Structure formats: C-alpha cells, structure tokens
Amino acid sequence: MRAITGELAGEGIYAEYFRAAFSSAVHVEVQDNYGVPDEYEPLARWRDTGEIVETDGGRQWAALVAETTARGVTVARVRVVTVPHSEYTGWLLAASAPNAAAGEQIRWLPRHLADTPPADDYWLFDESTVAFNTVDGDGDTVGLAVTTDPAIAELCVAAWNRLWSKGIDHTTYLESEYATR
C-alpha cells in the first residue's frame, strides 16, 4: 500500500488517478462529517446564511470531473448517510450541484438501507486501483492509502456495486422524504 499526502482541495492528490483512469472513477463515502480545511468557511457560510460559496477548490474539482468525463470515463459517488442528516451532509446536499453539472453522477443512500457499508471511504479507479481516504486522530482527512491488490479491489468493487444499486439519484433524493428530515 502506498501512502500519499498533499493538498486535498480541488484536484489535489487525486489528479494523477483521475487522469490515468480509462473507464471509471467511483467513490464510496460513508462518513457523516469530514474535516477538510477548504470546506470550513463555505460550511459556516451556508449554516449562517444558506448561501453556497463557490471555492477555488470546488472549481478545480469540477474542472477535473469535466475533463475526466469528457474522455468517456464514468465519475460517480454514492454517499451513505445517516438520516436525519448531520449539518455537513445537509451542506453537501445543497452544494453538490456544480459536481453534478460537471458530469459526476451522485447517489445518496440512507445508512439504514445500506446493509453493511464499508468502514472506510475509498475511490476505485477502473475496478483495479483503490485509494482509501486516511484521517488523523481528530478525524481530519490527511491523505490516501493506495493499493492495486486484486483481492482488495474485488471487495471494493462488490461493495460499490451493492451500494450504487441501492442509492437514490441526487435530484430524486433532494425531493425525497429522507432529504427533508
């Protein structure tokens, strides 16, 4: 397993994996809160005013997604979330439109419908490279642990397929009973 640290905002440490992907870049998210410094101010602004603040990191991420999907690579994520939502999840619901507009497919899955979700978040590239998010003692995201071990990739593919098939499309989820709780 290879450990990678660096800038998490925007395309940051993910760029090389997205640019190398030829088929898919899919993400499983299972936490209700994330410690990403680039998101602290936008989250506080949304909490205080309801306003969604566009950041440089957000624009860079949307550009990376658009670049990747323009090559025919699927970019998708499923967010396994607790209902009622944490403040952070509420903000993500409100702030996901630019990602979707850039071509990222987003689904939401209430945790109680998820059977047994994995314990850790990960990106899965071309069903063969797994990049697990790593966190410090305070829960702040600090980097990635990357592996191409076929057995680990196979487990992650199976979890992705199971969760994605149960997930609710972003637009549909926004209008669902889960989003309003």
From TrEMBL:
Pfam families in the cross-refs: DUF6879
InterPro entries membership: DUF6879
Domain DUF6879: 15-174
Protein name: DUF6879 domain-containing protein
Species classification: Bacteria, Bacillati, Actinomycetota, Actinomycetes, Mycobacteriales
